[in-house]
Specification:
single chain; about 350 residues; mainly beta; Methylamine Dehydrogenase, Chain H; four-stranded antiparallel sheet; 30 strands; globular
Length: about 350
């Protein structure tokens, strides 16, 4: 049975320069078939007003500065101290204070495109992953919270899309365009393991506890890699389109038996799939009405949060294979979703929009 969900109130953008008399609330341009705003006429600049409904769910959106073009936020991570959100885009890496999401600084990155931000298990380093399409992939390490650049590794001849720290070893797995996948020494940048098998872009990577590496690719497959192995141990090819994200269940929620370790994947086939990867078993499948763009496991052992192309975040009960809630978050594509320790969800996406969503249940 779907749990009762408190209603969530959508925020309406207001005109940036109102005339002396109170104006009518303008409407956003109608979306194009691709899901992005239509461009047949000039797009006005918007200021999003943050407010909270007195009864029901809550959306908290800070005001955005008016700029000719705001780069979409394509990566986000909550800092270990829970006081800062780090976001990345083509405009660089910015720091936002929590919970008001106001600018709190920036990190001077040399990556032209930023696609992933990952804090190390020691909570003292941040990996910035991206690069320049068709030129090089870049991994930059910054100290935290000082923000000092510790090193910059140029890896691969094309952009990198995803990264994951090993839970115990000082190693960083990175995946990128053209099927590139490798495990690097985080101190020197030396390649410790090259993984060959994907024939299209590797879009996301994650460690399945300390057992093996899981990669998601545009070749419609998930692959599992044993430590030091060049060839994949298993390939999971149930998706019917590109696999764009993978998230492993938190260690505290995992079963004691390694073979029962669980992960979820999302794809352009508009599905969310629950796996027991080491058993090569697809456990559950949920079909969505909008393409999922990012996924994170929440504090609840059965619920994952999925950011979608329609700007909504869908909370999915992977045990029951159903959508438990689908509150609207931003206008346009929502590229990132992460959960804060206070259980609120942080969402970011098109036109540098950011928002906080209240957890819908007590």
């Amino acid at each position: 049975m779907r749990p009762d969900v408190r209603p969530t109130t959508r925020v309406t953008p207001l005109a940036l320069r109102p005339p002396p008399v109170r104006p009518a609330v303008p409407k956003l341009p109608a979306p194009s078939p691709t899901g992005r705003a239509a461009t047949s006429r000039p797009r006005p600049h918007w200021v999003l007003v943050a407010w909270c409904a007195a009864i029901g769910g809550c959306i908290d959106r800070p005001a955005l500065a008016a700029e000719p073009a705001l780069a979409p936020i394509t990566a986000a991570s909550i800092a270990p101290d829970d006081q800062t959100v780090v976001v990345g885009s083509n405009a660089g890496v910015q720091l936002l204070s929590w919970p008001d999401l106001q600018p709190a600084g920036e990190l001077k990155t040399g990556a032209r495109h930023v696609h992933d931000l990952e804090f190390a298990p020691d909570e003292a380093r941040l990996a910035i992953v991206g690069g320049s399409p068709g030129e090089q992939g870049v991994v930059e390490l910054f100290s935290w919270p000082m923000g000092t650049c510790l090193g910059r590794f140029a890896f691969h001849s094309d952009v990198l899309y995803g990264a994951a720290w090993h839970p115990r070893l000082d190693q960083l797995a990175v995946g990128g365009a053209g099927g590139e996948l490798a495990v690097l020494d985080a101190s020197s940048g030396q390649v410790l393991q090259e993984c060959r098998g994907h024939v299209r872009d590797v879009l996301a990577v994650s460690w399945l506890a300390n057992v093996c590496l899981v990669s998601a690719s545009a070749d419609q497959s998930l692959r599992l890699w044993n430590p030091g192995a060049e060839e994949a141990a298993h390939a999971l090819s149930n998706h019917t389109a590109a696999v764009t994200g993978v998230a492993v269940a938190p260690a505290a929620d995992q079963h004691s038996e390694d073979r029962l370790l669980e992960a979820v994947s999302i794809g352009r086939d508009r599905t969310v799939r629950l796996w027991q990867p080491l058993r090569r078993r697809l456990v559950r499948l949920v079909r969505l009405s909008s393409e999922p763009l990012d996924v994170c496991w929440t504090h609840h052992p059965s619920l994952v949060a999925v950011a979608c192309a329609d700007g909504c975040v869908r909370l999915i009960d992977v045990r029951r294979a159903q959508v438990a809630a689908e509150p609207p978050a931003i206008e346009g594509w929502a590229y990132c979703v992460v959960q804060h320790a206070d259980r609120w969800l942080f969402v970011a996406g098109e036109r540098a929009q950011v928002a906080r969503l209240a957890w819908p249940w007590p």
